[in-house]
Amino acid sequence: xxxxxxxxxxxxxxxxxxxxxxxxxxxxxxxxxxxxxxxxxxxxxxxxxxxxxxxxxxxxxxxxxxxxxxxxxxxxxxxxxxxxxxxxxxxxxxxxxxxxxxxxxxxxxxxxxxxxxxxxxxxxxxxxx
Length: 129
What we know:
This protein is an alpha/beta fold. It has a single domain (8-128), classed as Transcription Regulator spoIIAA, CATH 3.30.750. Helices cover 37% and strands 32% of the residues. The chain has helices at 41-57, 73-90, 107-119; strands spanning 8-11, 19-23, 28-35, 61-71, 95-102, 124-128. Strands 1-2-3-4-5-6 form a six-stranded mixed β-sheet. The longest helix is centred in the middle third of the chain and has 18 residues, at 73-90. The radius of gyration is 14 Å and the shape is globular. It starts with 7 loop residues before the first strand and ends with a strand.
């Protein structure tokens, strides 16, 4: 199953799996919804391949927007590993930027973003909505 196609494409799997929207013209991928799968490995492995393809297709530029309502521990770890992988691709060339959106009163999602921000060396923006 491939998510990367020309134009804008949205892939929605289940209510427990994030929606992934590729906005080719903006060189952006949006990840939104809930990530509370029992075994998120397959999902995030495929997402990592998709993001790597986008990064290369977008001439080593990728903007990631996370709009997560819920994230379980397994998903948090895999998001971290996925972002580390993208960070290693970007080292010394290209553009990789992360926007982490959270609701004003959602301390859990805010804290998850702050932890990721502290562990990564890519531009990481916390955005309250």
